[in-house]
Sequence to fold (260 residues):
Amino acid sequence: MTNLFITVRLLDVIDILLMAFILYQLFLLIKGTVAINIFVGIFSVYLLWLIVKALNMQLLGLLLGQFIGVGVIALIIVFQQELRRFLLMIGTRYLFTRKFSFENLFKLNLEITSNTNINSIVTACSNLSETKTGALIVISTKSELRSYVETGEILNAYISNSLLENIFFKNSPLHDGAVVIVGNKIKAARCILPISDEVKLPIRLGMRHRAALSMSNATDAIIIVVSEETGKIAFAKSNKLTTRISTKKLTEILENELGG
Fold:
């Protein structure tokens, strides 16, 4: 009779599946970026350390052990953008969209997007598109984006299509930069958005599109771009950019994203 010296519990299977899921999500975040090469390098060093320990090579094992010892801090520094995206994805996709989320448990739903004036935004984008006036509009969904609001000129004004069009008018001192909208108010104009070197776009798309995609990568916000060269409207969210959309399609997207 053969004795099985390895036992597999249900918790072990769950543990493996959860670890595989986390690693897969991390892989999706760093796929196609420079970070994946760094990840492979760190994993190779860790694998070498395990082999050295198994062979009882003390000096080399000690050296690699010191490197592994500070590995957590190194990972936080090297992968800070990827970790931010990973935590943001967990917070928005797996917590705030569930029935028993922290918002519902502690009654913290601020209804940031419930009063957003979609019609005024779409009308402004349509008029800006016709005159080929460049625009970059950031619409908050679950956070107030204070760190980005503070980089611009505080307005705290109610949304209107005429105000948005005046802000992005070429001779306006506020036209350069982004407008940040929270709820039914334009919180600030001339805001500075992050631009990631890892964002790769066709040559025909300019810096506004790059900033929009980078912002959608770093936050859960909705970003609308009006091209100054072509007048076409683009939409960015969750690290995805959709170009050449109609005003009707823009209305449908905003109603869907902002809850009508």
About this structure: The CA atoms of residues 52 and 59 lie 9 Å apart. The radius of gyration is 24 Å. Strands lie at 135-139, 153-158, 178-182, 185-191, 222-226, 233-237, 240-245.
